Amino acid sequence: MVQRAVFVPVLAVVLAVFTVGQASAQPVTDGSVDFSGDPGDWITGGGSYKYSKAAGDDLTVQTNANRTFLSVGVNGANGDWWTISLAAPKDDVLSAKTYENAHRYPFQGAGPGLSLSGNGRGCNELTGSFTIREISWGPQGYLHKLDASFEQHCEGGSAAARGNIFINNQPPPPELKLETTIAAEGKANTVNGKALVNGTISCTTNAAVQMTGTVTQVKNNVIIRGNFSASVECKAGAPVAWNAAADPTGTTPFQRGKAEVFTRSTAQDPNYPGQAISEKTAIVELKRYTPAA
């Protein structure tokens, strides 16, 4: 139960939320947050607060890809809202240990950062510490598990807010990786002059893949070049075939013989920020091909 307290008005605090370089908000599948404060603590007003997924409260976590920062957001079923931020010293990864002499995130300088704010209250300046008892990361800052505690003092006061964070998310999904192959044999269409090339795309998770490429051939000191593109719905678990036709940019058609094929495949990772990219170059033997009338 949330214990309400009477709060003494003070000057309003401007709260800054920095999201540059952070991954998208990650929902928490199983977790809880609790904190309480001494009499005179501005953030808690001396009250106690408890939230959990099991009780119907919404919890999210936001991180950055280099795992130096995490922020847990609480949207209570009763309308409360809070944010708890923990940051490692500059260039360090958040790991299982105690971080002393923390200051207000994101203005902590090169040292550790901490901030508990919400329900319209925040510290202008703060000191404190936090202990990470357990933490487990996945790709690109995916937070798998967290067991942490913290202590925060506003404005140099002796009154403190103390709390705990527990997160037990699903195991991290695989990061998208692509692998492109180019078949050793293609076709030179004798009717329209195009080069027909093909191959396969493999992916670690389902993704819509966009392919672009170039076929280059040299015949009688003439460079024949054409671009191609293709779209492939890649399914994890087995290679998926791709086919494309390169239209020569000049008046000389592609012909039988060797040609260089370059492909670039890209796809948005469905689970993490950013794209997966696969590039491949191969020498292909083009065979004469005359389509049926």
Provide an overview of this structure.
The protein has strands spanning 26-27, 31-37, 48-52, 58-63, 69-75, 81-87, 98-104, 113-118, 126-137, 143-154, 161-168, 178-182, 185-189, 195-203, 207-219, 222-234, 240-248, 257-268, 275-289. The protein is mostly beta strands. The chain has an eleven-stranded mixed sheet with strand order 1-4-5-6-8-7-9-10-11-2-3, with no helix packed on it. Strands 13-14-17-16-15-18-19 form a seven-stranded mixed β-barrel. This is Neocarzinostatin family protein.
By oligomeric state, this entry counts as single chain
Overall shape: elongated
Alpha-beta content class: mainly beta
H and E string: EEEEEEEEEEEEEEEEEEE
Radius of gyration: 28 Å
* Overall number of domains: 2
**Widest β-sheet, arrangement of strands:** 1-4-5-6-8-7-9-10-11-2-3
Keywords: Signal
Protein name: Neocarzinostatin family protein
Signal peptide: 1-25
Task: Set down the secondary structure blueprint.
Layout: E1 26-27, E2 31-37, E3 48-52, E4 58-63, E5 69-75, E6 81-87, E7 98-104, E8 113-118, E9 126-137, E10 143-154, E11 161-168, E12 178-182, E13 185-189, E14 195-203, E15 207-219, E16 222-234, E17 240-248, E18 257-268, E19 275-289
Parallel strand pairs: 7-8, 13-19
Antiparallel strand pairs: 1-4, 2-3, 2-11, 4-5, 5-6, 6-8, 7-9, 9-10, 10-11, 12-14, 13-14, 14-17, 15-16, 15-18, 16-17, 18-19
